[in-house]
Design brief:
By secondary structure, the protein is mostly helical. About 60% of the residues lie in helices and about 0% in strands. Helix 7 runs antiparallel to helix 8 and helix 15 packs across helix 23.
Length: about 500
């Protein structure tokens, strides 16, 4: 492992995780994370269930290799959470290529980007799609001017961010190291550290193979996927690990189930029974906080937005007399309300001007994605409706369902007020963050028609009496130096 990137994962018990017998009661952490992994699939532009199917493939490889129970547990969570850092480079991809970051990530996974010719073709065919040819040429030159160091930096951001969030969740060192190394290649031509052979963490080699196999299997079928593994045997992939996967083709039932079944239903069957992790309330809070980091990394202009909304919502709820359990629930809903934005391209999220009708239609689908993802997570399912209602209005002119005030619970009304307040006080591509007086003036015009009067009065009392501190008044491009050049080029 690169000495500049030490692994300092806390033991699972630090955050309410505990190994239990499979028959023990409690919330299985695997079920929570498997459901939330669909948000990571959105960010990568992959078909829903990509992370879970990768987990099933990787665990089958581990079984063939005969790895220990402890290694299987670490591998299991590395596979499920391999894309924790995927949102952190989405803005840079969109800005550098002037293209839809989801399309870029899909196309990038289908080529052998370690080969110069394929990388050139990828850049040439993906920069500024639909733009005038001269604009495309200049954009392509800007990409090539960054060179290998520029590509490494983008991958480094993803891998280190994913490893950091895995540490936050308290996973083992092996899990963290595997997530950090998923884009390394056996021949040393991978990213971001150029690790070679046995320098690459063993579990990372399995994760890297499993995720690539899943992409080709889903797109082209099992035979084409095996052709890819054979072709990259000894270059991308550890020969021994690749051989273990190549021994599975005869298991037609395994691949049929992977293609036709619901992978979520299979997760519990592959988690090592003696090392099942359960999560207490504190751990579920931490999971929500971790995914808030994933959400807010998607766009530098919504830097720390999820935490800001959660803080404001809790403050309003406390003023309105919410009980401690209700405050905990409104905080989780605030942290997770924008999960669906992971499915929106940064070309739209970060656009400095007015959105077109088509772009607005895409943006207005993000509450639907939030509702769908949270609906897959048993312990968060009851939050799905509240979290997804943050753009609804009392007069039923909101989105995405157009619910009227009578259909909105108080927690949803609180979340709506909190979301607007934090959005107005934060910088956007087209304006700086607004002062308190201006925020209250703008929101005050919507009271009674769009915003609940009681919630707004609570917010006003909070902002005037004891202002809720903003995480930052500066645009994220001022805080993250590497973004400044990218956004200048994409403007």
């Amino acid at each position: 492992m690169n000495p500049s990137a030490p692994s300092l994962a806390r033991p699972p018990q630090s955050f309410g995780l505990s190994y239990v017998d499979v028959s023990a009661s409690g919330v299985r952490l695997s079920e929570v994370l498997a459901g939330l992994s669909y948000a990571l699939d959105l960010t990568e532009g992959q078909r829903e269930g990509h992370s879970v199917r990768s987990c099933l493939i990787g665990m089958r490889i581990g079984e063939v290799l005969g790895i220990s129970e402890e290694e299987r547990s670490s591998l299991f969570y590395a596979l499920l959470m391999k894309d924790l850092g995927c949102s952190s480079n989405a803005a840079r991809f969109a800005a550098i290529f002037a293209a839809n970051d989801h399309d870029l990530k899909i196309n990038l996974k289908m080529i052998d980007w370690s080969k110069a010719v394929e990388s050139f073709r990828f850049v040439a065919s993906n920069v500024a799609p639909g733009a005038f040819w001269l604009r495309r040429v200049w954009q392509m030159l800007a990409v090539f001017a960054r060179g290998p160091a520029g590509a490494r930096e983008v991958v480094l951001t993803r891998c280190e961010r994913g490893a950091d969030i895995a540490k936050l969740l308290g996973f083992t060192r092996d899990t963290v190291d595997a997530i950090r190394a998923i884009d390394e290649h056996w021949d040393g031509r991978g990213q971001p550290y150029g690790l070679k052979g046995d320098q690459i963490p063993f579990l990372g080699r399995i994760v890297g193979l499993a995720q690539t196999m899943e992409v080709f299997f889903t797109q082209y079928g099992v035979l084409a996927a095996y052709d890819m593994v054979t072709e990259r045997h000894g270059s991308w992939f550890d020969p021994d690990v690749a051989d273990a996967l190549l021994s599975v083709p005869s298991e037609a039932a395994f691949w049929r189930q992977l293609r036709e079944g619901d992978p979520l239903n299979l997760i519990a069957t592959i988690e090592p029974p003696a090392r099942v992790l359960t999560a207490d309330e504190a751990c579920l809070d931490l999971v929500a906080e971790a995914f808030a980091k994933v959400i807010d990394a998607k766009s530098p202009w919504t830097y720390q937005h999820s935490n800001g909304v959660a803080d404001i919502a809790v403050a309003i709820g406390r003023s309105l007399g919410f009980s401690p359990p209700q405050l905990r629930e409104i905080r989780r809903a605030g942290l997770l309300h924008d999960l669906g934005k992971l499915g929106v391209s940064n070309l739209i999220l970060d656009k400095p001007g007015k959105l077109t009708d088509d772009e607005l239609a895409v943006m207005r689908r993000h509450p639907l994605y939030t509702r769908d993802i949270l609906g897959r997570v048993g312990c968060f399912r009851h939050l799905a409706g509240v979290a997804a209602a943050h753009h609804e209005r009392l007069d039923a002119r909101g989105y995405d369902l157009g619910l009227a005030g009578a259909s909105l619970p108080m927690s949803a009304k609180v979340l709506c007020v909190a979301d607007i307040c934090d959005a107005l006080r934060a910088s956007r591509p087209y304006r700086a963050g607004l002062p308190t007086e201006r925020i209250l003036d703008i929101m005050g015009r919507e009271v009674g028609s769009g915003l609940d009067p009681e919630c707004f009065c609570a917010l006003k009392d909070l902002l005037v009496g004891a202002p809720i501190p903003s995480s930052t008044n500066a645009p994220a491009v001022q805080l993250i130096a590497a973004l400044s050049e990218d956004y200048y080029q994409a403007a």
